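seq as requested:
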Amino acid sequence: MSGPAPGELQRSSRDAEKLRDGLRRSLAAHLPGTDHEVRSVRGTSATGMSSETLIFEATWTEGRVRRREGLVARVAPSAEDAPVFPSYDMPGQFATIETVARLTEVPVPPPRWCDPGSELIGSPFFVMGEVVGEVPPDVMPYNFGGNWLFDADPADQRRVQESTVEILARLHNVERPGEHFPHLGGGSLRSHVSSRWDWYRFAARDVGRSELVEKGFAWLESHWPAHESTAVFCWGDARIGNVMYRNFEPAAVLDWEMASIAPPETDLAWLSYLHRMFEEMAAQFGFPGMPGFLLQDDVAATYERLSGRTPRDLGWYTVYAAVQLGIVYLRTGYRQVRFGERQAPASADELLLNGAGLAELIGS
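struct tokens:
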């Protein structure tokens, strides 16, 4: 595993007062009453490397009653802050959350409204109700120890694993996903991989070509699955760091910017590979890790029992997950360079925190 130990990344260069004022004007436009105020605007560094998440308290007067509500804004990053993705469809993400809430029993934060323009705070954003719960941390990774999930009993860790797989089964069981999520487009594995090539080209414009990521794409092409599962509605960023848990079961599923219509194995492999990558990282830095957690065979067996679908070619989809995560690291590494948190590398491959694991997967 190459690169430094994972630490907190700077996400934004926005002015805090302008954010507060823009959010206040958004409240006034979407909530009834008068005297709208925004207090305690804060970000979170526990999870996420793409969109900004702002937690704040809203107060306003409705009739003669002073009301208070905890809210969360998801904000598209500005171009100067080295966004992970080429574009951010905030109305589309908001529509995805609304549709998931309407069609499934998957818990999501209550969707409130979307401001698709950039006039208020400099970028499009949407607002959700705040949900109380615990999120497995990314900084430092949950399997490094010293957090609620690592310290839990094995039975409770198993509850987290199985209830998370159940989320995927419920999402994948949405019938006629193309009709319900028309903004996601695609549907075939070929179109999904093509979109990831476009994403990689966007990343390479700033950091240069990654020999390892390109070898990964070549491996995928030469080992293309003989069977392609029927496309389903996929969460996309299916990992426990994007779930808020209460009593070791999901209270809210977060981060829908990678949602797609694709073979279900894309979600399953992402879920198990992201933990596997953290395990490799834990071993590198001398932490015990959680070696019996989110094992791919366990995930697949639970998924088959809950969904009735038999996952296929998970080895291929694991490489695909590793390639996509490599693209994420190209962007977050570039962001570190952009904010002066590291020196520009001699090679783009030096930015890949999962580089050694990807090389092993493809035999490079």
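The chain has two domains: 16-129, 142-362.
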